[in-house]
Amino acid sequence: MSEHIVEIAVFTVLFAAVSGMGFVAARWRRPDDLASLHEWGLGGRKFGSWVTWFLVGGDLYTAYTFVAVPALLFGAGATGFFALPYTIVVYPLVFLVLIRLWSVAHTHGMVTPADFVRARFGSPTLALLIAITGLAATMPYIALQLVGIEAVLKTMGVTGDLPLIIAFAILAAYTYQSGLRAPALIAFVKDSLIYIVIIIAIVYIPARLGGWGTVFDAARAKFEASPAPGDGWLLNSGNQLQYVTLALGSAMALFLYPHSVTGVLAARSRGVVKRNMAALPAYSLLLGLIALLGYMAIAAGIKPITTDGKTDVNTVVPLLFDTMFPDWLAGVAYAAIGIGALVPAAIMSIAAANLFTRNIYKEYIRPGASDAQEAAVSKVTSLVVKVGAVAVILLIDPQFSIDLQLIGGVIILQTLPAVALGLFTRWFHRAGLIAGWAAGMTAGMVMLYNIANPAIKHEHFGGSAFPLAKLGLDTKVTVYAGFLALAVNLAVAAAGTLIARAAKAAEGVDATRRDDYFADEGDPRVHDIELSGSH
Fold it and tell me: What is the pLDDT of residues 427-438, one digit of tens each?
C-alpha cells in the first residue's frame, strides 16, 4: 500500500471535501421546513435545467457504469458497446412519457411511480406490486455502487471492509440530513471530475501506447484468438438480435427505475424536463469514450486483480489509470469513480425510501400519516436501505450482486404496461395488469434461471442472453430475456383485460383527468389528490 500513498492522499482529500458539501447541502436553497417528502425527497421540486441535468446524469451514469462498461469491452469485445445505442434511443423514447408523468405528479403531489398507478387505476394492490418491484430492482443497484469503490480500494492496496463501511456511513449521514439536495450539489463536482479525467485519458493514454491504431489492433488480435462464441471484434450472427433487444430493453427500463423518476420529478417545470431530454445525450458521448478504456487496457497489457482464485475484471480501469497516469492524477481519477458512486447511491436510497413510505407505510400501516411523519419514516428507511446494501456486498459474493442487478433490469421492465402505457391509455383493466405483471415476472425468472455462463462457472442466472434453442428452435440466436418477458406480460395483460371486461369485473376509479397530463409550473389546478378504490 505504501507505493500508493500519493493516490490515497488525493483520493481521501477529494472524497472528504465532497462529503462536506453533502452536509452543507442542507442549507442550499433551504426552505422554512424540510419535514416533508416534497422537500427532503424531491428537493422542493424546484430544480432548474442545469441542476436537473447534473442530477439526472449523475444518477444514470454511475460508478458501476464507469468500471463495468469498459470491463465488458475488455472481456467480451463489441457486445459491450450495447450501452451506446441504448443511451441514445432512450431519450426520444422517454421524452413524451416523462413530461406527462411530471405534469400529473406535479398536479397531484405524487412522489413515486406507484403513486401514479394507485391514482390511475384505483388499485392499491397494483400499486403495491409496482412499489415492491421498484424496491427489488433498486436494492442490488445500490450495492453495485460499492463494487466501483471496492475496485478502486483494491487497486490502491487498501484491504479490509472498514474503509467501505466508513464511506457508506458518511453517505448515509449526509443523505439523512440533506435529502435530495446533497446528491444534486455533489453531482456538479462528480461530473466535472469525470469529464476532466476522461478527456485527459483519451488523449494521453493512446499517445503513450503508440496511437489509436495500436489500441484497436491489440483488441482485434485478442478477440480473433478468443475461442468464446460470444466474444468478438464485431458482432456475430448469434448475438446480433441479443444486442438489439438488449439495447432496446435497457432503454425502456432505464426510466422505469424509481431513482430515475425521482430526479425528473424534482424538476421545476415541463420545460426543464424537455430541455434535459434534449441535452442528456451529451453523456452518451462521454460513455462512448469511457467504454474505449476497455480496449486501452488490452493494449496496455493490464491483468485484472485476482483474489482467492477469483478474477475481478472490474479492476481493469483503476489498474489502467495506475499504470498510465502519474500518481496524483491517478488519485483524482479514483476520486472521480468513488464520488461517482455516492451520487447515484444517495438518489437510489431516497427513491427506495419514498416508495416504502408512500406505498407501504402510508397505504397499509398509517394512512393518516402527516407530512412530517412521512419525511421521518423516509429518512430512517434510507438508512436501512444503505445498511442492507453494505451487508449485501460484504456478506455475499460480489458477482451475485451483479447477477441481482441483471435480474433487476428484467423485473423493472414488467412495470412498463402500468406506468409508461398507463400515462397514455386507461384501456388496460387493473386485473389484466396484475395478471400480466405476474406472468412477465414468472417468465423472466424462468428464462434467467436457464441461462448458463461457463466463463464464470454459473449454471443459472449467468447472463441476460436467452438461447432460443431452449424453446426448441434449431438456432444459436440469443435474445434479451427482459424483452421476451415483457412480450409475455403485454399479451397476458391484454387477454386479462378482455376477460375482466367480459366478466364485468369492477373497474378502478381513475382519479386523474386529461388536463392533468399537460399541467405546468404555476398551474392553478394543482391540488392534493383524493384516492379511493378497492384492492
Answer: 999 999 999 999
Tens of pLDDT along 491-508? Answer: 999 999 999 999 999 988
In angstroms, the CA 68 to CA 398 distance is: 13
Kind of pairing between the strands at 310-312 and 465-467: unpaired
How far apart CA 19 and CA 160 sit, in angstroms, is: 21
Query: Under DSSP, is residue 306 helix (H, G, I), strand (E, B) or coil?
Result: strand
CA 377 – CA 391 distance, rounded (Å):
21
**Which of 218, 191, 192, 223 shows the shortest CA–CA distance to 205?**
218
Output the CA–CA distances (angstroms, integers) from residue 351 to 20, 382, 500, in the order listed: 22, 8, 33
* DSSP H or E segment with residue 388: helix 371-395
Rounded CA-CA distance 10/335 in Å is 8
How far apart (Å, rounded) are the C-alpha atoms in residues 451 and 458? 9
Report how far apart, in Å, the C-alpha atoms of 264 and of each of 56, 60, 102, 250, 258 are. 7, 11, 7, 18, 10
Q: Which of 83-92, 179-188, 224-233 has the lowest mean pLDDT?
A: 224-233
- Lowest pLDDT segment from 87-91, 102-106, 201-205, 260-264: 87-91
C-alpha span between 463 and 239 (Å, rounded) = 13
Q: How far apart are CA 26 and CA 179, in angstroms?
A: 8
At 66, the pLDDT band (50, 70, 90 cuts) reads confident
Locate 292 and state its grid cell. 474505449
> How is 450-466 classified by DSSP, letter by letter?
T--BGGGTBSSS--SEE
- What 3-state class would DSSP assign to 452? coil
- Tally of CB atoms within 10 A around 458: 15
How far CA 100 is from CA of 265, 271, 530, in Å, comes to 11, 12, 20
Say how far apart CA 272 and CA 359 lie, in whole Å.
Answer: 27
| pLDDT at residue 118, rounded to an integer | 95
- Residue partners of 502: CB distance under 8 A and separation at least 6: none
Cβ 427 vs Cβ 498: under 8 Å: no
pLDDT of residue 445: 92
For the record, the C-alpha cell of 88 comes out as: 441514445
The average confidence (pLDDT) of the chain is 85
CA-CA-CA-CA torsion for 42, 44, 45, 47, nearest 10 degrees? -100
Half-sphere exposure of 196 (CA within 13 A, CB side): 15
Q: Between helices 83-108 and 240-254, what is the axis angle to 10°?
A: 20
Neighbours of 136 (CB within 10 A): 16
Select from 372, 205, 226 the least CA-distant residue to 295: 205
Give the SS3 label for residue 310: strand
The one-letter code for the residue type at 306 is T
Across the range 347-366, mean pLDDT stands at 91
SS3 453: strand
- Residue range 4-26+34-398, CATH number: 1.20.1730.10
Dist CA 328 CA 411 (whole Å): 42
Per-residue pLDDT, 134: 92
Q: State yes or no: pLDDT of 33 exceeds 80.
A: no
